[in-house]
Specification:
Elements: H1 3-12, H2 17-24, H3 29-32, E1 46-47, H4 48-55, H5 59-72, E2 78-80, E3 83-86, H6 88-101, H7 108-115, H8 134-195, H9 199-263
Antiparallel strand pairs: 1-3, 2-3
Helix pairs in contact: 2-6, 5-9, 8-9
């Protein structure tokens, strides 16, 4: 094992709340420091695709989770041209995030709570309990209101992200239609030149129309790739939105039940 990077990670993450949370839940060092860390360079910066391959997760899923962690303030990165770049510390942070999400019942909202030092509730089987005191019920209601507010903020952010993606998709769709029209026109012009039987003219323009044809095809392919990526991102956001709305409804139902008990 690369002792240098492991030593550095242990030093720099000893007070990290996610790292502490995983240790408290019984994660051993062989899980906290997996073999893939051996291949990471401390100096190098990695693309989103490279990080996805290291963490063995789909790039679109990783991009969504990184976005949420960036909004929370747990992950930082910078852009190099059109791509984000990540150093080893942020790669390890994302590994910790994914480990927590693998714990049954944990989600992005729980990670936000852990980072705010508010531990998520542990799900236990229902047992016969004594009636709660009014003050305790009131405290539970206040805690629920905080969770509900956090959930509503997260839902609003998801809706804004979906709206932005939809606008971007419309713009790219417009560009794609124009490019397809341009490609069609270029193709017809090229075909007409080939059939013109004017060898002197054909020879002079042959390289030019081939160049335009290749450029047009490349542009179309790039636009289609961008649209596919945005559509995939939108599906992830929409799926998360459904989950968050469902969880919000459960919180609202629980609050309603507590209020009924409080008024008795």
């Amino acid at each position: 094992m690369n002792n240098l990077i492991i030593v550095k990670l242990k030093q720099q993450f000893s007070n990290d709340l996610l790292y502490i949370y995983l240790k408290m839940h019984g994660f051993e060092e062989d899980v906290l420091f997996p073999p893939f860390l051996n291949s990471i360079s401390i100096e190098r910066e990695y693309s989103t695709l490279e990080v996805a391959e290291l963490l063995e997760i789909k790039e679109n899923n990783l991009r969504y989770r990184i976005t949420k962690m960036r909004e929370i303030g747990y992950i930082d990165s910078y852009r190099a041209n059109r791509c984000y770049r990540y150093k080893y510390l942020n790669i390890y942070r994302m590994y910790l995030v994914l480990m927590i999400l693998k714990i049954k019942g944990r989600n992005i909202g729980d990670i936000a709570n852990i980072l705010k030092e508010r531990q998520p509730e542990i799900v236990i089987e229902e047992t016969e309990t004594k009636p709660e005191e009014p003050n305790m019920i009131k405290k539970d209601i206040c805690d629920l209101e905080i969770k509900i507010l956090d959930k509503q903020i997260l839902i609003n952010e998801l809706q804004e992200n979906i709206k932005e993606l939809y606008i971007s998709l419309l713009a790219l769709g417009h560009k794609l239609n124009l490019s397809m029209l341009e490609s069609s026109i270029v193709g017809k012009v090229n075909e007409a030149l080939k059939k013109a039987n004017k060898k002197w003219f054909q020879r002079s323009s042959e390289s030019e129309y081939i160049y335009f044809d290749i450029e047009s095809s490349n542009q179309l392919r790039m636009l289609k790739d961008q649209i596919n990526t945005l559509q995939s991102d939108m599906k992830e956001y929409e799926k998360s939105l459904v989950i968050e709305r469902h969880e919000l409804q459960k919180l609202l139902d629980l609050k309603r039940e507590l209020l009924v008990n409080y008024e008795k």
